[in-house]
Description:
Layout: H1 3-9, H2 14-30, E1 34-36, H3 38-45, E2 52-57, H4 61-72, E3 75-80, E4 85-90, E5 94-100, E6 102-105, E7 114-117, H5 120-125, E8 135-137, E9 146-147, H6 152-158, E10 160-161, H7 168-171, H8 174-185, E11 189-190, H9 192-203, H10 212-225, H11 228-237, H12 255-267, H13 277-284, H14 290-300, H15 304-326, H16 330-337, H17 342-351, H18 355-373, H19 377-382, H20 390-405, H21 423-430
Parallel strand pairs: 2-5, 10-11
Antiparallel strand pairs: 1-2, 1-8, 3-4, 4-5, 6-7, 8-9
Helix pairs in contact: 2-4, 8-10, 8-11, 10-11, 12-13, 12-17, 13-17, 15-17, 16-18, 16-20, 18-20
Amino acid sequence: MSDYLFLLDNHLDAGQNRAVAGIQRLATAAGMNVWLTGGAMRDMLRGAPIRDLDFTVERDAVTTGRALAAEIGGTVLAEDPLHRWVELLLPDGITASVSNARTEKYAKPGATPEISPATIHADLSRRDFTINAIALSLGRGSRGLLVDPANGQADLLSRELRTCSSFAFLDDPARIYRLFRFQHVLGFTLHPRTQSQLENALLEEYQSAAASWVLGKELRTAVREGQAAAMLAGLDSHGLLKVLSGALTGSKLNPAGLEKLGKLAQSVLPSGFEGGWLAFVHVLTEKLTARDRAEVVRNLEFTPDELAAAKKLDSQVGKLEESLKVTTRPSQVWEALHLATADEVLLVLYGSQVRVVQDRIRAYYEKYLPLAQEVTDDEVVAAGGKPGTAKFDKVRRSLIISRLNARPRKIEIVEPEPVQVAAAVVGRGRR
């Protein structure tokens, strides 16, 4: 086993391991090469958890992605036949993408590219930044081989962002927004050549060729990774937020509110807690007029489900806060919060001036939720619950309530017996 495969094995969880094994089986059966690429390699080599699996193959990526989802019980979230790319949701909440090794040629900034099949070296060379242009072979013949044509490993060590080519921003202006996310999420500096490229791109206003939803996509990722406020400040300093709204600048960004929200998310919510996008946008637009808020939401291109949730958010937050004011027993706090969304919890924490509400939310995550998670399926079955039925959920709820409301056992402290010390010994000690 190569050192890189050993490193990979130590970074993958059980669900990710199943996905890697699944695509290896498919690649072997089809006689094709497959590589782990992009963010997965970047995160692995810098010692960070791997969030998403990015696979690159030589054959039809869409067909391969569908086959992977079918083999291990996942679903296809999105397909892009033009770029020959598919996004998957796999068991255990694992997200993955499968794409073709390819080259892209652009007639003008932001134009639809001309796609051609390519080798893995050519595919890596056409990517945005060197830290994303590293591949690890998972194929049978070359398993464990690292491909790094742009020396991205050196940039990871020096914590530096460097484009793969002089045309990176010209070809795809969306990379301008991605640059700011990487700069603030990873805490990397810009290579002097990349800094010059960025300044020239902004001078030529290449960013105007990128759709507004592109910025929204980068912001969503930054929110998930906890550095959206810093990214916004960087974008604002370069006048890049006007794509969302001309009113969204300076103090109207609500930097103090966003910083407060970020601290609450990090200090109260458990690590890996998903959600918070709607709460972020709510605080981001808090100081804007209703008209300007609507413009921001429109340019961020909310999904229909997000729009529906956003319309009910204020009402749901109010109900949750009122419920937490009057609850007294641990089980009541659990019942109020276990079905609440991350957005609702964050906005209650953000806006409530009632200390007991804040304390009960903290107690839920620190004590009540861990206790509730101790109730196993076997216990539910033993108590008469049949898996897959409404009774199963009802029995589980009953067991959780009983466990939460049970009085903790009183710990009896046994005083140690006094040690008898011989007088002669005491006497010798005094001399």
